[in-house]
TrEMBL record:
It comes from Ottowia beijingensis. It comes from the Bacteria. Residues 303-317 have a biased composition (Low complexity). This is Recombination-associated protein RdgC. The keyword Repressor does not apply.
Amino acid sequence: MFKNLMLYRLSPEWPASAAQWEAAIANEPFAECSATQQKSTGWVPPRGDEHGALVETVDGQWIARFAIETKAVPGDAVRRKVEEAVQHIEKTTGRKPGKKELRDLRDDALISLLPQAFPRRSTVTVWIEPTQRWLVMDVGAQGKADEVITSLVRVAGKGFGVGLLQTASSPQAAMAAWLADAEGDALPHAFNIERECELKGSGDEPAVVKFTRHPLQTDEVRQHIAEGKLPTKLALGWAGRVGFMLTQALQLKKIAFQEGVFEEGAKSKDDDRFDADVALSTGELSGLITDLIDALGGEADPTAVSDQAPAAAPASATERRALATAGADDDGPPF
């Protein structure tokens, strides 16, 4: 169910319950792109049922799903359409279009071609761990995470605050220490180093060294660390149950549950498969995230998130603007 994770910390005020979360996101249900619409976003039932609940509660965990649909027109098709229009103008009027008219022609060409474009849809599973106040997204691209955060800001209103989860030690510093430790004592016992990592130097044109299917607890790797190269990602295993790639931005990628972890879910009936998958995956990942935070020195300040003061600076301009909107809205969501 989860392949990549981005970790956020929610403020204590919102949502107070799964029902409150569902009532809020019901204001932005997903609708397919119209004929001339390039992008549409919104919330869909996580079970896949057409008229199902927008938030599911399974084993105490809250699950929702956000959909992003885009329609792209090939640039070459737009250029050909514009060239045809330019040739027609030159032939009928004897003049060449100016810059503003060319921009208008490009817009007109795009709009005329959009109905022929095929939509592409992706979804983001969003998980709230209510006891820890974690907001966890199954997403590998920051842009998609920004879309989810922006939607939540629009519908949540006063009381909503979110920030990237911050640890006392940076993931990069910790990964470097684990790789540099010849005795293997620096890495917490719940984790083991696997056979893939990327090391990056400093400077305008930094050297990059990648290891794939290669032992990492070697003098060669330690020498790279001693020379100043730092890990940007490192493959780890947790408790013999989950494998993943940890990045310097505290993202978990390439999550893979080990054989046998999902045997109970595989035996479930189709109607219960969603519940079993959610219960098993969130149960395992909750333990992994807890141990990972501990391995990185604990959270820097888990109480700092509020609608006025997010715990951490957002990772992009989109998220910064979204959080500023949340802090400024004292009258509730702009429906």
